[in-house]
Amino acid sequence: MTTTIPMTDTINAAELKHMMTRDPALRILDVRTGGEFESVHIPGSYNVPLDTLGEHVRDLADVSHPVVLVCQSGGRATQAHAKLTGAGKETLHILEGGMNGWVEASGDVVRGDVERWAMERQVRFAAGLLILIGIIGSLFHHRTKWFSAGIGSGLVFSAATNTCAMGNVLAKLPYNRTDRCDIAGVLERLNETSA
Question: Same domain for 85 and 107?
C-alpha cells in the first residue's frame, strides 16, 4: 500500500517513519559526505554527496519515485532540494532536522565501524582553530588579526546565504570521501520498481 506524500516540502521524523512502513516506492537520498554516511545513516538510504549530486542533477530529477532528502541538520538537503526542483523533480521532500532530528526521534540507524565528525562539527573546529591561530599570531604580528576577521566574515556570509565554502573545502578531504558512491548503481537502484 502506498501512502500519500505530504504536500509540504519538509517532513518530520515521525512522518518519515510512517511513510517508510507504508510506501515501498519511497527513496531516501542522503546528501552528506561519504564519510558521514559511513558513520551513521538511515537503513535503506542511498548516499549521493551534495557535490556529486550537482553533477548528476538531471538524472536524479528523473527518478520517478518519491524522494526524501537527508543531511546532518537540513542545510545541504535544502541546497539539494533547490537543485532537484530546479531540474523538474516533484515529490521531493526534506527531512526536518536531518540525521540529528532522526536520531533524536529514535529512528533506526546503521552505524559504521568508524565514527567521523559531522560536517558542521568539522567546520566549527576548523573555523575556531583558524581564528585562534589569527589571534595568537596577532600577538607577534598585529596584521594577523585581519586573518581572524576574514574567517569571521566568512562565517557571517555563510549564515546569511545558507552556504558554506569551508564545508565545501572540508568535504573534499580524503577523511570525508569514500569510494562508495557508485552513481550509476545508485541511479539504477533508485529507479527500481521496488526498494
Answer: yes
Domain of 143, in residue numbers: 119-171
| 195 residues of the chain, pLDDT tens digit each | 444 544 458 999 999 999 999 998 899 999 998 888 988 999 999 999 988 888 889 999 888 889 999 999 888 899 999 999 999 998 899 999 999 999 999 999 999 887 777 777 888 888 898 999 999 998 998 888 898 888 888 888 887 877 777 777 877 777 666 656 677 777 887 888 654
SS (H, E, C) 57-78: HHHHHCCCCCEEEECCCCHHHH
Geometric angle at alpha carbon 154, from 142 and 147, rounded to 5°: 15
- Domain assignment of residue 107, yes or no: yes
Quote the number of domains for the chain: 2
Whether residue 127 sits in one domain with residue 112: no
Q: How far apart are CA 71 and CA 177, in angstroms?
A: 15
For residues 57 and 123, membership in a common domain is answered with no
Which DSSP letter does residue 174 get?
G
* Helix, strand, coil percent content, the chain, rounded in steps of 5: 55, 10, 35
- Same domain? For 183 and 107 the reply is yes
Query: Residue 106 is which amino acid?
Result: S
pTM of the model as a whole: 0.72
